[in-house]
Amino acid sequence: MARKLAAAHGLGDDDLIVSRLQLEELQSRLYCLQAAIEDVDRDLEASTEPGEVREALTWLLDNARPVAALWIEPRTLDA
C-alpha cells in the first residue's frame, strides 16, 4: 500500500517525507553552526592565545551540539 501511494506521488525507494517544521529546524541549526564556524575561523586568524582559543571552541561547541542532538524521522501515514 505504502509503495503504491509513494509511486503515485512520484517518490522512489530512496525518497522520504519529513515535516516542514523538522526541515526548517534542521536548516536553522545548520545556519547557526555555519555562522559559528565562520566566527571561529575569524577569531583564530586574529589570535592564538589559549583563553581566546578556548572561548572560540566553546562557541563552536555551543552551536554544534543542537545540530548533533537533532534527529529527524521520516513521516508515516499515521503522522
Describe it for me?
There is one protein chain. The chain has 79 residues and is an all-alpha fold. The chain has one domain. Helix content is 68%, strand content 0%. The chain has 3 helices and no strands. Helix 2 packs antiparallel against helix 3 (50-69). The longest helix is centred in the middle third of the chain and has 27 residues, at 20-46. The two termini are 16 Å apart.
Radius of gyration: 19 Å
Give the number of DSSP strands: 0
- Gap from first CA to last CA: 16 Å
- Largest sheet descriptor: none
- List the uncertain runs: none
Oligomer: single chain
- What does the average pLDDT come to? 91
General form = rod-shaped
Taken as a percent bin, the fraction of beta residues is under 5%
Helix run count: 3
User: What order do the SSEs take from the amino end to the carboxyl end, as H and E?
Assistant: HHH
Brief account:
Helix content is 68%, strand content 0%. It has 79 residues and is mainly α.
Map the helices and strands.
Layout lengths: L1 H7 L11 H27 L3 H20 L10
Helix pairs in contact: 2-3
Structure keywords:
single chain; 79 residues; mainly alpha; rod-shaped
